[in-house]
Amino acid sequence: MPEIHADTVAEVILLARELSEAASVGARDGVTNGAGATQAAREFRAFVSGLTVDEKLDLVVLYWIGRESFSPDEYDDALETARAEAVNRTEDYLLGVPLLAEHLESGLEAMGISASDAENDLY
Hints:
Number of domains: 1
Helix content: over 70%
Order of helices and strands: HHHHHHH
Low-confidence stretches: 26-36
Shape: globular
Number of helices: 7
Number of strands: 0
Distance between the termini: 25 Å
Mean pLDDT: 86
Structural class: mainly alpha
């Protein structure tokens, strides 16, 4: 079972959505790496880099479960894989993931945690 608090994952989900939205607004406007996307990326990096090592590993595992690389029953195996394969900073790895917010939501739901309740608890 993940050690990371659902509210923490919900914050990452919201930051990932902001990042995706800023990138798509910039793309529509013909701007790549615009100020909005850069600010959103800085906020995402700052938040994720401030997590503990265990929280970062749980975040990666929830992402993998959400994209169905592992099932919830394989949580411990996924955690060991995340430990063994952690060669990049988590924020760098996750920043390049398409549909990160959706995969994290799916990962939480697969683990029996309501992503929408966690997101609603933030605000």
